[in-house]
Amino acid sequence: MRWIVRLVVLAVIVAAIGLWVTRPKTDDAELLAGLTPDTAHGEQVFIAAGCASCHMAEDADAEDKLVLAGGQPFASPFGTFRAPNISMDPEAGIGDWAAIDLWNALHHGTSPEGQHYYPVLPYGAYIHMAPQDVVDLHAYMQTLPADGTPSQPHEVGFPFNIRASLGGWKLLFLTDDWVMQGDLSPELTRGREIVEGMAHCAECHTPRNALGGLKTGADWMTGAPNPAGRGSFPDLTPPEMSWSEGELVEYFTSGFTPEFDSAGGHMALVVENLSQLSEEDRAAVAAYVKALPLE
């Protein structure tokens, strides 16, 4: 009996250590202290990050896209996730969030209540945002409308509905290391900030392992099946991606391919976002794509 008691005690200790190591992480407000918000830059961050593309109501159009009432479904092998209301309503949305709450959500995947967010919120990419980016984004979002539509629950079954397990997922896959390394030019550095960070391009264009983590190295941006089960996202590395930088910039601007086809599906929303960035930013994204594959 004594060895059974010891085994139970050991299991409890290991479990407690595991819960402590994988607990939701947060930073204190001092991290953002002294930063002056720039609402105009925050709008550019909002556009590059595709916030409205995911959090607008289904079939929203024109100015209604800025009413971030949520509700769009995102199917995956782990269940169907619903984009929450992130409008400025203090009850249904995030109107009562401070800038540090937004930082912790985007950087650590942690809610103001201290719970893990599912990585359908691409904090694995947003972790690359600088503190100033988040402060500016928070300031811009405060200028957007409030909407009282309640967020819809995710449709996720056991065991994926156990949020505590997400701490282990973060321990394995959440890192602020850049994937494209080396002595990069200013243009490539900016392209990396957009592609790997704000625009979270790899979330669609990079294959995943069995636990849903993005594969890096030679697999980075080599295309992936659509988690909703319809088609796939294209490989952005050569020889599959043969467009020139100029052709990529044109695609990001107008949505037209060199073959005079046009962007469709969710990519049409991505192009809509990219087209609102500066031409320099679109050129930086094109430069990043043409610098692939990684060695």
Q: Regions with pLDDT < 50 over 5+ consecutive residues? A: none
> Using only CA atoms, what is the Rg?
20 Å
For the report, how would you describe the main beta sheet? 2 strands, antiparallel
What level of helicity do the residues show?
25-40%
- In terms of quaternary structure, the protein is single chain
Strand order of the largest sheet: 1-2
Q: Residue-averaged pLDDT, rounded?
A: 90
Structural class designation: mainly alpha
Please indicate the count of domains: 2
**Number of strand segments:** 4
Please tally the helical runs, counting DSSP H or I stretches of 4 or more residues.
12
Instruction: Give the termini separation.
Output: 56 Å
Assign an overall shape. Answer: globular
Strand content: under 5%
The H/E string reads: HHHEEHHHHHHEEHHH
Give an overview of the whole structure:
This protein has 295 residues and is mostly helical. It has two domains: 27-173; 186-290, Cytochrome Bc1 Complex, Chain D, domain 2. Helices cover 39% and strands 4% of the residues. The protein contains twelve helices and four strands. It has helices at 2-21, 39-48, 51-55, 99-108, 123-126, 131-141, 166-173, 186-198, 202-205, 245-254, 266-274, 279-290; strands at residues 73-76, 79-82, 224-225, 232-233. The protein has a two-stranded antiparallel ribbon with strand order 1-2. α8 (186-198) crosses α12 (279-290). The longest helix has 20 residues, at 2-21. The protein is globular and about 65 Å long.
Tell me the layout of helices and strands.
Blueprint: H1 2-21, H2 39-48, H3 51-55, E1 73-76, E2 79-82, H4 99-108, H5 123-126, H6 131-141, H7 166-173, H8 186-198, H9 202-205, E3 224-225, E4 232-233, H10 245-254, H11 266-274, H12 279-290
Antiparallel strand pairs: 1-2, 3-4
Helix pairs in contact: 2-6, 4-6, 8-12, 10-11, 10-12
